[in-house]
Design a protein that fits this description.
Layout: E1 6-10, E2 16-17, E3 33-37, H1 73-79, E4 88-93, H2 99-112, E5 117-121, H3 126-134, E6 145-147, H4 151-161, E7 165-169, H5 186-203, E8 206-212, H6 224-228, E9 231-237, E10 243-251, E11 259-265, E12 268-271, H7 275-281, E13 289-296, E14 299-310, E15 319-322, H8 326-339, E16 348-353, H9 365-377, E17 389-390, E18 393-394, E19 400-401, H10 406-415, E20 421-424, E21 431-433, H11 436-444, H12 446-452
Parallel strand pairs: 4-8, 4-9, 5-6, 5-7, 7-8, 13-17, 15-16, 17-20, 20-21
Antiparallel strand pairs: 1-2, 1-3, 9-10, 10-11, 11-12, 13-14, 14-16, 18-19
The structure holds adenosine-5'-triphosphate and magnesium ion.
Length: 453
């Protein structure tokens, strides 16, 4: 029997089926089967190909290409020093976060620097793209655009135009006519990304591939997309807020430690070189506010953590965490109650990292704990004279544990005149505490500490 040239593959377990099923026959998951093209392998044996000659690495010719600067310092830094010719960079982010703005600005700058560029959009008409470009700086209006969703047409155009850098916005809107699935389906996304990657590698053109993010925050489409490309950048932040962060989740040509902070303005995305100054400048000295000396990759960043503890009739009460992990908040509340004498009981607890920044590190625990305790007691940290900075992980037995780069965190706090800084022992901070109870006593001062203890 002839093998079909298309099969249906489950994105969850990889089960293959000749027919489409709503439910995967392998793992039972729903709506995970996606169509995939397969070459006819009937005549092939176990090793039917012709053998090739392996080459010793020292004899491999490796041309060094100069990196292309996008003219956006933060983007260049995160890419590891600019765009590598022939590389594929996937830029993911939720709707309206500014993916098209960022990529349009990068192309505009490259075009202005005399590079050949092309902006392919399957999402917007050329007129819409022009309207955006009008408010952007540089040569954004000089960038050639193609508004097209058919993959074959896009590939043929790329091959004919041979841009040095192009943007494909977005991988979910292009459609390969060889497959029947709708644009954006798993099979389509994989096919689109695979064929663009092959053309780009063959022609040495760099591609910035825009991708959508699902509700859960994962890049929409199969995980294989992330393996296919050279870099995966994630653009985060809240659409309603002005600050956005760009971080590398994967980078074949640089580190994944760095984070760029941007602000969305009328004139496009503006790099925020001194993000700490912004966040600390806006920090309040009211009860419920603590400044966290965080590390965003290799870069120290001061952010304000705010908490509100308010009586509630709801059962169970609300535990809302914005910008920090919800489970981490639950842990901190449990340790506060059990080991530091600050029980929030049936009150609602809201914790928010100001500026729409997301902090994903255990070093944020102490700031959350101090902010909640300060809000619960109605007492400002450090007597409300100046914002109190802190960092440290809270352990389950109520101890404070050290976190990475205490020196850089302290240096950043010192740069903005924050004193005292409360941190775990041996961190070199002006106030060192061994336990959360100890830290609370030092931060909240005499009278309320006695109540807290
Ligand atoms: N005139 C303006 N001034 C300031 N900000 C603006 C202006 N016009 C648009 N924006 C911002 O730009 C954002 C849209 O940016 P952009 O189109 O680049 O996002 P996107 O990530 O490509 O979205 P999508 O997923 O819909 O393609 C809006 O959410 C808005 O915050
Ligand atoms: Mg867009």
């Amino acid at each position: 029997m002839a093998r079909p040239t298309t099969v249906f593959v489950c994105s969850a377990c990889g089960t293959e089926s000749a027919k489409w099923h709503g439910q995967c026959p392998g793992c039972g998951a729903w709506n995970t089967l996606a169509e995939e093209a397969r070459p006819d392998t009937r005549k092939s044996g176990p090793a039917a190909g012709r053998p090739a000659k392996p080459v010793r690495l020292a004899e491999v010719k490796a041309e060094r290409h100069e990196r292309l600067s996008t003219g956006i310092g933060e983007l260049d830094r995160i890419l590891g020093g600019g765009v590598v010719p022939g590389s594929i960079v996937l830029i993911g982010g939720s709707p309206g976060i500014g993916k098209s703005t960022l990529t349009s600005m990068a192309l505009g700058n490259l075009q202005g620097a005399g590079r050949r560029t092309l902006y392919v959009s399957g999402e917007e008409s050329a007129a819409q793209i022009r309207l955006r470009a009008e408010r952007l700086p540089g040569a954004a209006l000089e960038v050639p655009v193609l508004s097209e969703t058919d993959l074959d047409t896009v590939l043929a155009t790329l091959d004919a135009e041979r841009p040095e850098v192009c943007v494909v916005d977005s991988v979910q809107t292009l459609h390969a006519s060889a497959l029947t699935g709708a644009a954006g389906s798993v099979g389509q996304v994989r096919e689109v990304a695979d064929r663009i990657t092959r053309l780009a590698k063959a022609r040495g053109m760099a591609v910035l591939l825009v991708g959508h993010v699902t509700k859960e925050g994962a890049l929409a489409g199969p995980r294989v997309l992330e393996h296919l490309v050279d870099c995966v950048l994630q653009f985060e932040g809240e659409r309603e807020r002005t600050y956005r962060t760009l971080r590398a989740l994967k980078n074949r040509f640089g580190s994944t430690n760095d984070v760029g902070v941007f602000e969305m303005r009328q004139g496009g995305l503006v790099e925020v070189a001194d993000a700490s100054a912004r966040f600390v400048g806006e920090a309040t000295r009211a009860p419920g506010s603590a400044v966290l000396a965080a590390m965003e990759g290799s870069r120290p960043l001061l952010v304000e953590v705010q908490a509100l503890v308010s009586p509630s009739d709801l059962v169970p009460p609300r535990r809302i965490a914005n910008g920090i992990d919800r489970n981490r908040l639950a842990l901190v509340l449990a340790v506060l109650g059990r080991h530091a004498g600050v029980g929030v009981g049936t009150a609602d607890v809201f914790v928010n990292v100001a500026g729409g920044v997301r902090v994903d590190e255990p070093g944020a625990d102490l700031a959350v704990a101090l902010a909640v305790a300060s809000a619960a007691r109605g007492v400002a940290l450090g007597g409300g004279e100046s914002p109190v900075a802190c960092f440290g992980e809270v352990g389950l037995t109520g101890e404070l544990r050290s976190v990475g780069h205490p020196d850089r965190r302290l240096a950043e706090a010192a740069k903005f005149g924050l004193d005292p800084v409360i941190a775990p022992r041996e961190s070199g901070a002006s106030v060192e505490a061994a336990t959360l109870r100890d830290a609370l006593r030092r931060a909240l001062g005499g009278r309320s500490a006695a109540r807290a203890a």
